[in-house]
Amino acid sequence: MFEKLKDVAARYEQINEKLMDPVVVSDNSQYKSLMKEHKNLTPIVEKYREYEKAEASFEEARELLDEGGLDKDFKEMVEEQLNTSRDEMERLGEELKILLLPKDPNDDKNVIIEIRGGAGGDEAALFAHSLFRMYSMYAENKRWKTEILSANETELGGFKEVSFSIEGEGAYSKLKFESGVHRVQRVPETETQGRIHTSTVTVAVLPEAEEVELEIAPGDLQIDTYRSSGAGGQHVNKTESAIRITHLPTGTVVECQDERSQHKNKEKAMKILRSRLYERMLEEQNAKIASERKLQVGTGDRSERIRTYNYPQGRLTDHRIGLTLYRLEAILNGDLDEVVDALRAYDQAEKLKSQGEE
User: In the chain, which ranges are continuous DSSP H helix?
Assistant: First the structure.
């Protein structure tokens, strides 16, 4: 590990020098690429320097104790320095192991989240709206930008399905473990007997694909226009501004009718299509390496039940990591950090364990 850290520190210094070179500064793409690498290496190098400082303090204390001849008070002080430095080295060493784990190349990307009501009809659609609100409020807390790309609303104010983008630093790294089936247990407002109903909603979190990563041939697309229609006659449009795009090689269909402009609907539909095809490409790549190493926190499969929201008990349970929290209202109001951090910590621990087994 320390050989690797020395290489990282040397590369970091090399980048620092290059970033001061006027030739590099004038080359926009090279400069941006180096700045990105610099940003990724900075936390590792800073932590490594802290480790070196603790190590120097440890060595100094050990040498003084080896030499002997210290008076009682000074010896106690040096022994305390030795123990403190050793503990610090252990703590920093563990943190460095995590920082050196292979980084998911999509972690810094923006995301597109698709939420669909599953079993449970209107109640599932209402809960889909609750989850949309939860992620939107979480994004707001992080000062991220949210934009609805496509929505199919119900008469009661729920969503049969909704697709929206979240733009912000590290959005995918924090939200990628949300893919799967979310189950809700609550008493619907329409329920006169007070019985608890169970409904399900599926969530898919897609890293937003940039055009350079995924080329889509125009000939592979079938684009249809139609008149948009909304719940209860809302947003009904006299012109054919709604867009349906079919990607012929894969059969992937995306519809968008949110905007009054056909051009904007097409733009949003292409954004969703690109991310769905990118996710499909990633799934194929992951399937190839799955035999070597399984994905860590669940499979990200939309059919896998990952979480239960129990309203009568005010309880959230994440079934993948056995996490149970009795603060459901706060979580549904966007206070997701505890859940997100627990999932990321579990994923890191699993990766460290599998690295140790190799």
Answer: 2-18, 22-26, 28-67, 72-99, 121-141, 171-175, 262-289, 328-332, 337-357
Distance between CA 26 and CA 31 in Å, rounded?
8
Measured CA to CA, the distance from residue 227 to residue 211 in angstroms comes to 28
- CA–CA separation, 124 and 141 (whole Å): 26
**Region of 121 on the Ramachandran plot (φ > 0 left; ψ -120 to 50 alpha; else beta):** left
**Long-range contacts from 136-145, C-beta under 8 angstroms, 24+ separation:** 136/164, 136/334, 137/333, 137/334, 138/334, 138/335, 138/336, 139/166, 139/168, 139/171, 139/334, 140/334, 141/334, 141/335, 142/168, 142/171, 142/174, 143/168, 144/168, 144/171
Looking at residue 209, what DSSP letter applies? P
- 328 or 272: which carries more pLDDT confidence? 328
Percent of the chain residues past pLDDT 70, beyond the cut: 86
**Tell me: the pLDDT tens digits for 25-71?**
888 888 888 888 888 888 888 988 988 999 999 998 898 888 887 88
179-204 mean pLDDT: 85
Helix (H) / strand (E) containing 296 = none
Plot region of 24 (φ>0 → left; ψ -120 to 50 → alpha; else → beta): alpha
Structure tokens at 306: 């990952």
**pLDDT reading at 201 higher than 80:** yes
68 touches 74 (CB < 8 A): no
Q: Distance from CA of residue 269 to its chain's centroid?
A: 22
Q: What average pLDDT does the segment 142-164 reach?
A: 87
Q: Is the backbone of residue 152 left (phi > 0), alpha (psi -120 to 50) or beta?
A: beta
User: What are the helix (H) ranges across 142-247?
Assistant: 171-175
